[in-house]
Amino acid sequence: MTWILGVNAPPTGWHDSAACLVNGDGEVIAFTEEERVNRHRHSLYRKPFGAARFCLAQAGITAADIDVVALGWDSEQLYPRRFATDAEFLAYAVGLDFGARTPEVVRVPHHQAHAASAFYASPFPKAGVLVVDGHGENESSTIWTYQDGAEPRLERSWQRTASLGYAYDAASTWLGFSFLNAGKTMGLAAYGRAAHLAVEPLVDLTADDFGLAVEPLAESRGRATADEIKAQYDDTVGRWRERYTKIAGADGPRVPEERLTDDPNAVLVAYTAQRLIEQTVTHLAALTRKAAGVEELCLSGGVALNCSTNGTLPGPLYVPPVPHDAGVALGAAWTVRPPRRRAGALRPYLGVDVWAPDRLNGGAGEGIPGARGSGAGASGGGVPGRGRRGAEGLDLSGLVRADLDIDELAGLLLDGQVGAVAQGRAEVGPRALCRRSIIAVPDTADVNTRVNTLKNREQWRPFAGVTRPGYGDRLWERQEYLSLYMLGAAKATELGRRVAPGVVHVDGTTRPQVLHGDEAPAVGAALDALERHGAPPVLLNTSFNDKGEPIVNTAADALRAFRAMDLDFLVLGDDLYRKPHRTGGAR
């Protein structure tokens, strides 16, 4: 058997490091972000050591069995002559002991890795692929044509400093956020849309191109090093911040982060940047479809996490669950070995089983429960009595346990309680897709306030809804693929605004998930039970994590978060845990 380990790893992939294992048929065996394992948000400057160990354990192999390590960057361009040998590079970037035989190292250009992760995860046999992010090695936006059985074709590219990602980073940092918190900028921008703000256009769209209000630098070299790119980034982002300062008449917000909606300048800057992204990506999407000669479109790159923009684009449209930099681990592996068989869109539950050891970094990395195949780890633990598998050694003191009864769970939810679910193998990507989620009935706006409070988030930030396919068509605009992974904003219907106000943002949109079959057993069963009880089958769904933490991964993570947060109940596998004396809801 051939084994390909795809990675996003330092020094090139210095944030959102990840590892993905693909076999000789291009089948994804395991995939997780390093932050889920080491519990450091975005895993800054950290190699994907724990993520890679999990992947090996899931397949039941060792590092010596790996044939190819595929990196989603051209590290030789960015860091020329830094590593004398591939073995030296692998020791720095991954940290596994590959034994006497060094695997082949394939360096895949960053945007090609992004494009492959989107197309091969999609259900399309042919598609145009648009990649938009901060930058790759030599570009900021690219257009590709992908087709099964054919070599991908790069149609167009734009230089690094013509970057939509840089423009959005500048707005985010002007607002006081990290560039890694662009989702906050997007959430704040909705207040400008709701107020029908008129904003200064920052892009000039022509028939087959675009020009930004902040002109790109004269880049003297097409193949720059990392140091040169960093200098260009700082220069370009600085000029964009000056532009936002001119627009707002201030060099930053005048109120604290939790009150940004009270600052008209903050809302103006956020919405101005958001409109820039929406206008330009809409134009680039049309150019991509024209170049590829088909309507099927895939998006990837960090800008593809902008759900508000995705929701404005016409279909057929697909965005993978990991469009950001973690996804190049998957795309690099698939560039080496594309999947031979594809059956619909990628199933995202490829991560660590909830009953895995507390820290994959701290143990031998072998014998992880759920490894070597699917079993309960893949199914989500939907069989009664299987929920306590691996619970030995966990601290369950002070908690009241019961077997999970779905009607009882529905009753708790209808009583206004807010709880969490941790079941089966975790989803990949930044969106919780009901296997590591906080859930509540969203029938009042007050639930939004409570969940933001227990997650220690700003009160102006929105939440998403999850439902079943038939009911989703009644609650919001239909999305064929974006709602698989909560990656597209959709306008709520009158019914949606009436029965689920807790997941409708100020601009009348939500970021829905439509849950099919038993892919997330507890939440799916709870939705069905709500309907049996005569209640609307829709829940608030948000990530199970406290402020500043990654989404929970293992049972131990879930128990720690449950104790630390003001949650009412926890579904852990097929067990239901509650805190003593917590009997009623929050109403």
- Evaluate the radius of gyration: 23 Å
Described by the principal axes of the CA atoms, the overall outline is: globular
Main sheet characteristics: 8 strands, mixed
Strand runs, count: 22
Which consecutive residue ranges, at least 5 long each, have pLDDT under 50? 361-387
Estimate the helix proportion, in percent: 25-40%
Strand order of the largest sheet: 13-22-21-14-15-20-16-19
Question: Which key features would you list for this structure?
Answer:
single chain, 587 residues, alpha/beta, eight-stranded mixed β-sheet
Walk me through the structure.
The protein is of the alpha/beta class. Helix content is 32%, strand content 16%. The protein is built from 18 helices and 22 strands. The strands form 5 sheets. An 8-stranded mixed beta sheet has the order 13-22-21-14-15-20-16-19, sandwiched between helices. Strands 3-2-1-4-5 form a 5-stranded mixed beta sheet. Helix 7 (182-194) crosses helix 9 (264-292). The longest helix has 29 residues, at 264-292.
